[in-house]
Amino acid sequence: MDDRFRQIAVLAASQHSVVSTAQLKAHNVDASLRSKWEQRGLISRLGPRSFALAGSPPTFERAMASGLADLAGFGVAAGRAGARLYGLDGFPGCSTEFLVARAHRRYSTDGLVCSTRRPLTRADIVTVRGFRCLTAERLILESPQFAFTRAETENAIDSAIRLRLVAEERLRARVVRDHRTGINGGRLLLDALVDTGGESRLERWFLRLVRQAGLSRPLVQKTYRDGTRTIARVDAYFSGGLVVEVSGHGTHASRRQRQVDAQRHTELTLRGLRVLTFTYEDVRDRPAWVIGRLREALALAG
Questions:
Q1: Higher pLDDT, 177 or 239
Q2: CB atoms within 10 A of CB 33
Q3: Sequence-separated (6 or more) residues with CB below 8 Å from residue 277
Q4: Which of 102, 111, 195, 257 is least surrounded, with the fewest CB atoms within 10 Å of its CB?
């Protein structure tokens, strides 16, 4: 066996069984030898600038490595593929999606490739699970390019905030700026941001109830500390010292969790706060009751 193939096999093994034409050339594999390897079944072409070792399975990771190789260093994982790499909620599929700067839009691969007029700088690119990828913030800003649905946009924002991949206020500021300057997709993102910022779909439902009732938006995920010790990070804080917590299925069911909840409630109360708790069923099945109790509490708070 040609020693060059052994070197290529080792390299491909570290790249999900993918090797680029540029890497083959760097190992002195010219077009003629590459063709012989293909004929012998040692490698198979995947895209314009990518090959796979024979017998390697067609995984999502292999498709991503192939796409990035085809884009010759100018592309980054984006869209739903980037969301899957980050582990954002609601992106389980295997679609491969990439972003390139407008100047490199001639490059192509089997996956979806979108181009952007915005500068694509080093600050916008990180490595996620071994792949060049947009930062989570930039991925969300570019999501209209990939025709994200409203649900996908909300899921991406909510889970990126929960995973501490983006800062909500910074994201809001960038979306507002893009909308004002006429960048395509700003309206969709503004709409999706209206009720985001919580850490779950239940919290988003609650924020939507608050908005529809004409009440002022609360501060979400406010943290209270005693020195270096975190007492609580509450779901929603309203003016006048009113805290609202929403509890989902199973998250407060164990004896230990009930003890933690009671301690949080006690420590917040001792700091002059009043705490309301609404359940999943409250928010989903009797929103009018939730808003009624919230109005009462806000009136008492002055």
A1: 239
A2: 15
A3: 244, 245, 246, 247, 265
A4: 102
